[in-house]
C-alpha cells in the first residue's frame, strides 16, 4: 500500500474526474489543507525545544507493527528540524520501494544519514518563518508516501524537551494522543473527534459500532435496522449500505451491493479498477454477478472517527455509483424498482473471471 503510493505534483491531479466522487474527494483534499494550515500555525509559534510528533494510526491503516511518523523539533534561532521514518525502522513487508524513496527526496527530504543526527530517518531542516512550506511537505509525505487516507487517521503529540505536553489547538481532524490534556480541559473536538473520545475499550465492539451508527443516523440503538445476520442497514437513496462487525480478527466492514444481476465483462472490471484507484479509501469489485463496494475499519483499538468517515464515504459513493454504473452496465440497484439486468452477451464476447 504505502510503498506503491506515488507523490504526485499536485493534489488535484489525482482527483477522480467522475462526478460520483468529486465532492467527496474535494472534502478529503480540503481536510488535508486544513491540517497543513493548522500545522503551519502551530510550528510558527512554538518555543525552542518544542516538538510535534504526527503518526499514522497503525490500527486504523492496517499497517500492524509498521509505524509511519514524522517529528518536527524547534532548534535555536528559529530552525525547525524534521525527521521522517525510513525503511530501517519498518518491517520488511512495509518498507518503501525505490519509487517511494524517490518521492521522499523529491519532496525535499534528505536520505537517511545525510542530515547530521538524522540516523536511519529522512531529514529536513527549515525555518519557522517558512512553516507553511514545511507543513505542506509533511502533509504530502503522510498522505502521498505513507498512505494516510485522511487526516482523521493521524494522531499527534506536542511536547517540550522534558516530554511534558504543550498546550496546542487541534490540527484539523487529526486526533491528539489519548489522554492528552489541552489547556485547562479537553481539547475542543469536532463531532467526529468527540465520538472517538466517548467510546471506551471496555464496551464490546458491536455495541460501540451501533452507538456510532445510531448517533450518525440521529436515532437510538434500538431503532436501528438490523437484519438476521446482525448487519446494520442504512438506506442511501437507491442504494443500501451495511455495517457488519467481525470478531476474528476484530473488523468492521462497511459495504454495499452496488448492482446485482450485472454481466461481469472486461469493460466492467476495467471501470471498477479505475474507480478503485481514484477512491480516497475503500475498493470496488465484482463477485459473480454483483458489484460490491467495501471499506474496512479495524476493530483493534477502535476509533469511532474511522467508522464515521467510512460510513460517510460509503453512503455518498453507493447512492451515486449505483445510478452511474447501472446506466452504463445495466443490472439492478438495491432500491431500483423496475431495473432490468443487462441482456445476455453473445457467446463470442470475451468474459473474465473474478475481479478480486
The run of helices and strands is HEHEEHEHEEHHEEEEHEEH
How many strand segments? Answer: 12
Estimated helix fraction: 25-40%
> How is the largest sheet built, in terms of strand order?
4-3-2-1-5-6
So what's the overall shape? elongated
Helix-strand category = alpha+beta
Strand content: 15-25%
Query: What is the subunit arrangement here?
Result: single chain
Straight-line distance between termini:
16 Å
Count of helical regions: 8
Written description of the protein model:
The protein is α+β, with helices and mostly antiparallel strands. The chain has 2 domains: 31-176, no CATH class; 205-329, Yope Regulator, Chain: A (2-Layer Sandwich), CATH 3.30.1460. It has helices spanning 19-45, 58-61, 98-107, 131-145, 191-198, 205-216, 266-278, 304-329; strands spanning 51-56, 69-74, 79-84, 122-127, 154-159, 175-176, 225-226, 232-236, 239-246, 251-259, 283-287, 290-298. The radius of gyration is 22 Å and the shape is elongated. The model is unreliable at 1-22, 179-201 and 342-356 (pLDDT under 50). Pfam families: TY-Chap1, TY-Chap3. Residues 30-154 form the TY-Chap N-terminal domain.
Amino acid at each position: 500500500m504505502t510503498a506503491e503510493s506515488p507523490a504526485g505534483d499536485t493534489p488535484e491531479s489525482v482527483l477522480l474526474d467522475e462526478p460520483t466522487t468529486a465532492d467527496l474527494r474535494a472534502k478529503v483534499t480540503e481536510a488535508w489543507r486544513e491540517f497543513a494550515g493548522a500545522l503551519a500555525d502551530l510550528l510558527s509559534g512554538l518555543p525552542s525545544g518544542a516538538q510535534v510528533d504526527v503518526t499514522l494510526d497503525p490500527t486504523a491503516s492496517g499497517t500492524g507493527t509498521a509505524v509511519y511518523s514524522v517529528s518536527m523539533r524547534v532548534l535555536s534561532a528559529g530552525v525547525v528540524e524534521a525527521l521522517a521514518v525510513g525503511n530501517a525502522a519498518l518491517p520488511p513487508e512495509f518498507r518503501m520501494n525505490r519509487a517511494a524513496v524517490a518521492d521522499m527526496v523529491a519532496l525535499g527530504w534528505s536520505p537517511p544519514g545525510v542530515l547530521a543526527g538524522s540516523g536511519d530517518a529522512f531529514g529536513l531542516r527549515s525555518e519557522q518563518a517558512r512553516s507553511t512550506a514545511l507543513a505542506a511537505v509533511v502533509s504530502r509525505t503522510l498522505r502521498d508516501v505513507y498512505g494516510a487516507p485522511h487526516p482523521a487517521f493521524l494522531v499527534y503529540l506536542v511536547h517540550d524537551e522534558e516530554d511534558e505536553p504543550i498546550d496546542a489547538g487541534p490540527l484539523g481532524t487529526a486526533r491528539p494522543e489519548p489522554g492528552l490534556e489541552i489547556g485547562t480541559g479537553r481539547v475542543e473536538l469536532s463531532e467526529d473527534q468527540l465520538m472517538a473520545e466517548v467510546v471506551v475499550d471496555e464496551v464490546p465492539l458491536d455495541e460501540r459500532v451501533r452507538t456510532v451508527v445510531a448517533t450518525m443516523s440521529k436515532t437510538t440503538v434500538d431503532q436501528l435496522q438490523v437484519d438476521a445476520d446482525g448487519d446494520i442497514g442504512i438506506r442511501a437513496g437507491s442504494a443500501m449500505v451495511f455495517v457488519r462487525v467481525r470478531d476474528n480478527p476484530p473488523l468492521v466492514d462497511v459495504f454495499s451491493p452496488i448492482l446485482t444481476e450485472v454481466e461481469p465483462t472486461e469493460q466492467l472490471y476495467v471501470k471498477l479498477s479505475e474507480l478503485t484507484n481514484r477512491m480516497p479509501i475503500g475498493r470496488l469489485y465484482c463477485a459473480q454477478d454483483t458489484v460490491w463496494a467495501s471499506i474496512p475499519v479495524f476493530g483493534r483499538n477502535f476509533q469511532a472517527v474511522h467508522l464515521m468517515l467510512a460510513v460517510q464515504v460509503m453512503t455518498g459513493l453507493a447512492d451515486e455509483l449505483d445510478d452511474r454504473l447501472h446506466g452504463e452496465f445495466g443490472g439492478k440497484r438495491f432500491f431500483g424498482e423496475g431495473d432490468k439486468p443487462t441482456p445476455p452477451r453473445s457467446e463470442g464476447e470475451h468474459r473474465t473471471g473474478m475481479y478480486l
